[in-house]
């Protein structure tokens, strides 16, 4: 079976406010900037991108389920759901696509409740605390995994 040359980009709750939300932590780039950067990075490897952001967990779960049929991997910043959501983790595990987990801020250096990720061990790539450019790093590393150039 041929691998689809498409990635799903998932951004979780509150990331629609990027650019104005706590810029000292998350910077001044917007969600539209993130989507453009990821789209350009993926295109450089011959992949296209379907992007979803929602403040509603079920919308994110449906998008992850839908990726089964036409995506080769998932780049996800689960935002606060990282630290709370078994169902999001279960969805990622269920679709069995390679996953890259991204956090703009360095969650390891922030409040203790941000130190645990339910997603971490279902992801093969982790890019944490590199700011918005971390999404681009994640795309490159995930595509290396998809194309068999890396084990993750
Ligand atoms: C975040 C870190 C999370 O702890 C937080 O809830 C977010 C964004 C990040 O990108 O740094 O919403 O995932």
In short:
The chain has 152 residues and is α/β, with parallel strands linked by helices. It is 36% helix and 17% strand.
Structure description:
With 152 residues, this protein is α/β, with parallel strands linked by helices. It has one domain: 3-Layer(aba) Sandwich (Rossmann fold), CATH 3.40.50. The chain has helices at 23-26, 31-43, 57-70, 86-95, 133-146, and strands at residues 6-11, 48-53, 73-77, 99-103, 125-128. A 5-stranded parallel sheet has the order 2-1-3-4-5, sandwiched between helices. Helix 3 packs parallel to helix 4. The radius of gyration is 14 Å and the shape is globular. The relative contact order is 0.19. The site of 1,3,4-trihydroxy-5-OXO-cyclohexanecarboxylic acid (DQA) has 10 residues, from loops. 1,3,4-trihydroxy-5-OXO-cyclohexanecarboxylic acid binds at residues 14, 77, 79-80, 82, 103-105, 107, 114.
């Amino acid at each position: 079976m041929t691998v689809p040359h498409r990635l799903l980009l998932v951004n979780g709750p509150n990331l629609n406010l990027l650019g104005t939300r706590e810029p000292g932590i998350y910077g001044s780039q917007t969600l539209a900037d993130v989507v453009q950067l990821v789209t350009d990075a993926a295109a450089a490897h011959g992949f296209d991108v379907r992007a979803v952001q929602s403040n509603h967990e079920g919308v994110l779960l449906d998008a992850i389920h839908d990726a089964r049929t036409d995506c080769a991997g998932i780049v996800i910043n689960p935002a606060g759901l990282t630290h709370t959501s078994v169902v999001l983790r279960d969805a990622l595990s269920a679709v069995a696509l390679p996953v890259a987990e991204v956090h703009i801020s360095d969650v390891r250096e922030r409040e203790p409740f941000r130190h645990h990720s339910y997603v971490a061990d279902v992801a093969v790539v982790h890019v944490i605390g590199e700011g918005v450019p971390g999404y681009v790093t994640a795309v490159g590393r995930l595509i290396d995994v998809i194309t068999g150039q890396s084990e993750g």
